[in-house]
UniProtKB/TrEMBL annotation:
Residues 54-88 are annotated as: Disordered. Residues 70-88 have a biased composition (Basic and acidic residues). Keywords: Membrane, Signal, Transmembrane, Transmembrane helix. InterPro entries: Pkr1. The lineage of its organism: Eukaryota, Fungi, Dikarya, Basidiomycota, Agaricomycotina. The chain crosses the membrane at residues 28-46. The keyword Lipid biosynthesis does not apply. The keyword Ribonucleoprotein does not apply. GO terms for biological process: vacuolar proton-transporting V-type ATPase complex assembly. This is Uncharacterized protein.
Length: 88
């Protein structure tokens, strides 16, 4: 919603600026680019919404569980690393 309001106000401002500058081509190009960007953003948001609501994209029940933490290093490796630091 905020994106649509922001783009609408930007386009309205650029339209007023184009009118005040007697339809300057640079302002008209900015107006066209802004309109295309707004359309692309709306399309992108709609596509993401479609993908997120598809049932085949829902995570499996096992995917919702937290991953188990990796096993810590065996004590022998920890002692070896500590001894290696003492030698330095």
């Amino acid at each position: 919603m905020a994106m649509n309001v922001s783009f609408f106000l930007l386009i309205l401002t650029l339209f007023a600026l184009a009118f005040l500058t007697k339809w300057n081509q640079h302002v008209l190009i900015m107006l066209a680019v802004t309109t295309c960007l707004w359309a692309a953003m709306v399309w992108f948001v709609l596509e993401i919404t479609k993908v997120q609501t598809r049932p085949d994209n829902m995570p499996l029940s096992g995917d919702l569980l937290p991953a188990s933490e990796p096993d810590p290093k065996p004590e022998t490796e920890i002692q070896t690393e500590a001894e290696g630091r003492k030698d330095r």
